[in-house]
Amino acid sequence: MNDTLGGLFVVLMTPLDNSGSQDEKSLGRMLDYYVDAGVRGFTILAESSERDRLSDREKEVNLKTVFDKILGKMPIVVGTGRESTQLTIEESQRAESRGAAALMVSPPKNPKLRDQAIFDFFAAVGDSVRVPLVIQDLPQNDRPYMSPELIARIHHEVKNAQYLKLEDAPTPIKLQKVKALIGENLKVFGALYGRDAFWELDQGAVGIMTATATPEYLVSMIDAFFRGDRNRALDIYLYTLPLVYFLADIGVAVRKEVLVQRGIIQTARMKQPATELSASARKQLSETLGWVERRMSEVVGVKPHRLASQVPQ
């Protein structure tokens, strides 16, 4: 297994049953679906996993299911950022001991945190583990802004801060600024459901790390880009944008519904409180998904990914 992370890393959403509890059978089916689609790795217990709304038992079952099924086959990145340095260190050390290939860490939810406090946080976490850190630049949900200069300092002075998951839009512009300060040493992943995925790759990203229900499209786009077929990669990106942008403010609910329509998970339930799709929105999504699947199949030659073992009807 290549030690360098790149390509499509799927941020694993948490499937729920009708009672709102984690659906372990659907979780296993999701893993099969993504592996079969050709993803390069998984990122678990992240924002799109509804991590902060999961019970301790659900988190443990999630970790055990993924590590039992995936460890040794492809790399697993674990989201370990918490609201204090101590808790983040404890979560990071536990994930490292399980075999995590890297740890994704975002600063605590405090928009008033100054650069030195953010740096000290990452330095303490980096000193506590040996595996690489993925700096998550996510200035949403009350997290602080991290300038390109601060990201460069963290990378230069925290020896295992080797990756960046960039989610500060417009991401291609910030990626260019970060690269100008650091060069190629810091490996950058695009994110945000692939909204700017092609342009992130164009600015030097090594892959995309995001929640997606249609992994075959991002896998095909990334593969085409890195083998030099720029036009095909751009076609794939542009034809999938209607699906990427559909009700973008509730992106996890949308992607869960696509997985339901593809027979991978049982329900599109969200941990409450959260917005779920209405009947009319589900119909609109079905029409959008159908259009994208037809265009991608007929024009680009990428067929919609299916799994032989689907949810029993």
Description of the structure:
- By secondary structure, the chain is an alpha/beta fold.
- It has a single domain (7-242), classed as Alpha-Beta Barrel (TIM Barrel), CATH 3.20.20.70.
- The protein has helices spanning 24-37, 56-70, 85-98, 115-128, 148-157, 171-182, 197-202, 215-226, 230-244, 251-261, 279-300; strands at residues 7-11, 41-44, 76-79, 102-105, 133-137, 161-166, 187-190, 207-210.
- It has an eight-stranded parallel barrel with strand order 1-2-3-4-5-6-7-8, surrounded by five helices.
- Helix 2 links the parallel strand 2 and strand 3 (76-79).
- It is globular and about 50 Å long.
Rg calc: 19 Å
Distance between the termini: 37 Å
Task: Give the overall form.
Answer: globular
Mean pLDDT: 96
Output the CATH homologous superfamily. Answer: Aldolase class I
Low-pLDDT ranges: none
Number of strands: 8
> What share of the residues lie within helices?
40-55%
CATH topology: TIM Barrel
Strand order in the sheet with the most strands: 1-2-3-4-5-6-7-8
Strand content: 5-15%
Structural class: alpha/beta
